[in-house]
Amino acid sequence: MVGIAIMVIIVSAEFSAEFQVDFAVPRSPPSQAGLSELSWIRGHFGYDNLSIIIVVRDPSAYLWALAYNGGFIYFGDLFYLLTNQTDYSFLKNSDPQVRSDYIGSIQKLWTYGVLQEIKSGKYLILVPPDLYAPDVLEIQALTPFGGGVLSARQMTSANLQNLFAAWTLAKSTNDILTAAMPYIAIRPAANCTEYSGWTSTSSTTTVAVVQNFTRYSPCSVHVATTATKDSAQYVTLNGIWNIVNEAYIGFYFKGTANSTGSYLLTVLLSSAPGYSSYYYYNVIDESLWDGTVQGVVLVLSQFQSRGSPDLSSISSVRIGIYSVEQGTFEYNLQYLVIAHNT
Amino acid sequence: MKWVLLGLVAIALCLEIVGVAEGVSYSLGHPISGTYANIPIQFVAVTSLAFPILLYLSIAMFAGALLFGVVSPTRATLIEEVPDLPVRQGSGRKFREYLVLALAVGIAAFLVWLPRSLQSLPIGSDTLYYMSVVDTMSREGPAWAVVYTDKPLFYIVLYGLQYLSGLSTADFFIVLPVVFAVGATASVWFFVDSFYMETAGYASLLTATSTSLMRTSIDLYASFFATILLFLALGIYLGYRKGMKPRQRILLQLTFVVMLMSYWFVWALLLVMLGSAEALSKERVRRLKTLLAIGLPSIGVLGLFIAVALIRPPPMYWGLGSSFALYLGNTITPVGPVTYTTATLDLSDLGLLQYNPVVPILAVVGLFSYRPRTFPIRTIYIWSAIMLTFSLISTTGLHAALLIPLPVLAGFGLRKLVGTR
User: Fold this and answer.
1) Which of A41, A238, A58, A61 is nearest to A124 (CA)?
2) Mind telling me how many Å the CA of A170 is from chain B's nearest CA?
3) Which value, in Å, is the radius of gyration of the alpha carbons in chain A?
4) b/e for B248-262, b at 16 or more Cβ within 10 A?
């Protein structure tokens, strides 16, 4: 009997040890760069500095920012904070964690009377770019502060309202490229004659130049891919681009996906033969594939790199699909552009 | 029949232990080979497939056992037959019980410390929030917790402990869960020892190895702390219920106040379950009066907090008196009251049960074996029924699921299985 009791306790302890090793883990931390940004803010301003507001919009980043920096952490979209408006997409978000974090963050700002004085210039609003990943329109309201961290710049109320209007329009139309046009200088990366240079890297992907689907250029490229499990399928356009003074890459996109697993669009910019050195960016938002026309602007500073790529001598652009499961993907891509702030 | 059953249980346990040991050995790069070496590993793999199903079975069996205990014909149970007092006086036996307690505490400390020794970053999302609270209090002072949180005393205790320990906030939150795990294990022992000494060791050992002790989120520290207080308060109440002296009454009154100001959900549970259990006792009027006298100071403190909340509504005061709606999924924002979560029927919060099926299975055995004839068991039945119900509601689910006294009931179950009487 005692033997059975001992064995029961041992088995119970085994289960618990297994549970501990599997589940007692840190809350998914932000990237090292993100943590460095938070550390820099703490080093520069101290913990719980009530003269700064740190803006994040990821539940994990919110908790890490609370632990690292304390004070005022705003969880949500920057423009809603700058204009002191309630972000109902967060307040009524389907994700309870998002709702809860948003409410918690605005409650603290409300408690300390920050929201009422948000436009007074009394508070320094800091955006750690690796945690927040500001889009092209949000970047117009930001300026470099130090340590890789951005801060909200002083703007007239009219300019801020115009930016906010452009941003909300971009959100509602899924077309940030058109909405950002007044704020950025755009030049096409290739014209329609060069579009015939798009080639596929695999037999399961076909590529062809077809008719345009927006008014911004007369042609588009059509890509159809049958992806195997856990694979990436690319189309490539070779050329010579010096984008060292550019800040964004953009395009119009219209695509559909048929896959049971998750998938993403990936953009690669190579400066070395055989893609031994390149920048890459993954567009993980699957709503991109809802079949509607979407204007996309990617921020070059948010690209990650492999090897030692050089923005002054980009020799190849690749657009690809990574799919966890098997699937079929079809998309049209038009008006591939590079741009910088005006 | 009993021996055949026990034989099968013993074989299953042996296979499980050997299988897991072989798995660990394999993961460390030392695979075990041999003709029959694969059998235990296969057994572990097959049984683990059944765990998710076991979850629903456990809930059904647990609810069934509760119902069975209430409606089935009662008979004299082991607890009533055990002459507890003479047993209590046997010093040799007591020494053995202390030894088991020490072992349980050691296991609890090791299991909770284990992942923290392997990770460099703070574990669990709640830890990040608690770190921010303690650091904020370092700057704003302890009064901040009273004005802006619903767990003022608990946060003040944390702040004080961190200050006294001299540890950095990050290091403090590595040590704290271990301290709480030890406290929870010891408090379970104290509670069960107050009415059924022979089971205290089993209950504490199963507490030490239950996944409810291994939690990493959902009011991790406050719930832990309040659970310790709950077991201590129950232990004192049960131990001295029939002849309570003023000293013990004051101690209980203080414990109730601390509990209210640390995690009012548990304070409310304690009052409701003791009140319900006393309402079913023979001397209900006298007993309820005593309980009211114990609870009155904490009720008064609560009234005070509510009065402050009414006079100074959010965002001026956001403390204990204005936070009750949180558990109902309601809160106040600059744009008015909002419902951030709605109550739905949800079984997912009982998911913890599947990670250590030993405890719920033994808990069901415990419930089947002991009817709610005595006051302690009646209290545990009421406690289990309330928390099982709340654990099925999405807004209170995990808070309640962690408060079901499964390790205590499992201790009864194990005692029943291996007991000689």
Assistant:
1) A41
2) 25
3) 23
4) bbebbbebbbbbbbb
Query: In this complex, is the C-beta atom of A238 within 8 Å of any C-beta atom belonging to chain B?
Result: no
Whether residue A117 sits in one domain with residue A195: no
* Contact assessment for residue A89 and residue A83, using Cβ atoms and an 8 Å cutoff: no
Substitution target from A6, A7, A8 for chain B, most B beta carbons within 10 A: A8
Domain boundaries, chain B: 1-54, 74-418
pTM of the model: 0.80
Q: Mean pLDDT of successive 10-residue segments in chain B (421 residues)?
A: 73 78 73 74 75 75 83 57 42 77 92 83 80 88 89 93 91 90 94 88 90 64 89 91 86 94 91 92 86 93 89 82 71 75 73 73 86 87 90 78 87 81 50
Asked whether residue A101 is domain-assigned, the answer is: yes
Q: At A293, is the secondary structure helix, strand, or coil? A: coil
Residues A59, A145 within the same domain: yes
Answer yes or no: is the ipTM higher than 0.90.
no
Minimum distance, in Å, between the CA of residue B226 and any CA atom of chain A: 21
pLDDT, position B170: 86
Side-chain half-sphere CA neighbours of B296 within 13 A:
9
Q: Which of residues 50-109 of B touch A (CB under 8 A)?
A: 107
A to B CB pairs, distance under 8 Å: 166
Question: Which one of B28, B135, B330 would you mutate to disrupt binding with A, by most A Cβ within 10 Å of its Cβ?
Answer: B135
3-state secondary structure at position A267: strand
**Token duo for residue B155:** 């946060």
Helices B125-140 and A59-69: angle between axes, nearest 10 degrees? 30
Residue A78 CB contacts under 8 Å (≥ 6 apart), including other chains: A55, A125, A127, A132, A134, A138, A141, A142, A152
Of all residues in chain A, the one with the smallest CA distance to B215 is A24
Percent of chain A with pLDDT over 70: 99
- A23/B214 CB distance under 8 A: yes
CA proximity to A39, closest of A169, A147, A140: A147
Residue A71 belongs to a domain: yes
Q: Tokens at residue A207, please?
A: 């590529």
Residue with tokens 């990237």: A31
Phi, psi of A229 (to 5 degrees): -60, 135
- pLDDT digits 0-9 by tens, A254-269: 999 999 899 999 999 9
Please work out, in degrees rounded to the nearest 5, the angle formed at the alpha carbon of residue B37 by the alpha carbons of B35 and B41: 140
Strand stretches in B69-126, DSSP E: none
Average pLDDT, chain A: 90
Domain that holds residue A231: 187-341
A 24-83 residues with CB below 8 A of B?
24-27, 29, 47-48, 60, 63-64, 66-67, 70
Alpha helices in B354-405 (DSSP H): 358-369, 375-391, 397-401
A194 in the same domain as A337? yes
Specify the length of chain A in residues.
342
Instruction: Report the distance separating Cα A219 and Cα A210, nearest Å.
Output: 6
Pair B105, B182: CB distance under 8 Å? yes
Does the distance separating the beta carbons of A24 and B124 come in below 8 Å?
yes
Check which CATH number belongs to the domain holding A218 and give it: 2.60.120.260
